[in-house]
């Protein structure tokens, strides 16, 4: 049973501009160490924008949990390379409160935009 769905789209340039203005202060505040490591290199803007979109989509799917911090939601890649949503703190508490059993996440970026879709699944 689907308990929540969230979608977000983020212009890559928006994240690149924020990083250019705020640098590590923004990146450290919003993204976990795992996400920062993954986003190094030439595709940093695309990778950070996709992760930003994933966080926003997850917030929508969970119903905007009270007390949530940016680091309560992060994207970690599985060994096969597929992105997987991780939850902690207020986000994990809301997930449990909903009776959820699984998250589904897809990310994409093209044409200067990054998009994420999150589905929160409950038991059948």
Describe the protein.
With 124 residues, the chain is of the alpha+beta class. The chain has a single domain (2-122), classed as Ribosomal Protein L22, Chain A, CATH 3.90.470.20. 42% of the residues lie in helices and 33% in strands. It has 5 helices and 5 strands; from the N terminus they run βααααββαββ. The chain has helices spanning 12-22, 24-30, 33-38, 44-62, 89-97, and strands spanning 2-11, 73-77, 83-87, 100-110, 113-122. The strands form 2 sheets. Strands 1-5-4 form a 3-stranded antiparallel sheet. It has a two-stranded antiparallel sheet with strand order 2-3. Helix 1 packs across helix 4.
Strand order of the largest sheet: 1-5-4
Terminal residue distance: 5 Å
- Kindly state the mean pLDDT as a whole number? 96
- CATH fold description: Ribosomal Protein L22, Chain A
Instruction: Please state roughly what percent of the residues sit in beta strands, choosing from under 5%, 5-15%, 15-25%, 25-35%, 35-45% or over 45%.
Output: 25-35%
Shape: globular
Provide tags for this entry:
single chain; 124 residues; alpha+beta; Ribosomal Protein L22, Chain A; 3-stranded antiparallel beta sheet; two-stranded antiparallel sheet; 5 helices; 5 strands; 42% helix; 33% strand
Helix/strand layout:
Elements: E1 2-11, H1 12-22, H2 24-30, H3 33-38, H4 44-62, E2 73-77, E3 83-87, H5 89-97, E4 100-110, E5 113-122
Antiparallel strand pairs: 1-5, 2-3, 4-5
Helix pairs in contact: 1-4
């Amino acid at each position: 049973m689907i308990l929540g769905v969230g979608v977000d789209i983020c212009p890559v340039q928006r994240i690149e501009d924020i990083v250019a203005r705020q640098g590590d202060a923004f990146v450290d505040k919003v993204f976990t160490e795992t996400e920062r490591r993954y986003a190094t290199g030439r595709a940093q803007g695309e990778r950070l924008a996709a992760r930003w979109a994933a966080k926003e989509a997850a917030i929508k799917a969970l119903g905007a949990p009270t007390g949530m911090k940016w680091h309560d939601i992060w994207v970690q890649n599985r060994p096969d390379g597929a992105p997987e949503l991780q939850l902690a703190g207020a986000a994990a508490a809301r997930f449990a409160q909903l009776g959820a059993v699984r998250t589904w996440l897809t990310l994409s970026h093209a044409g200067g935009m990054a998009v994420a879709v999150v589905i929160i699944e409950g038991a059948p």
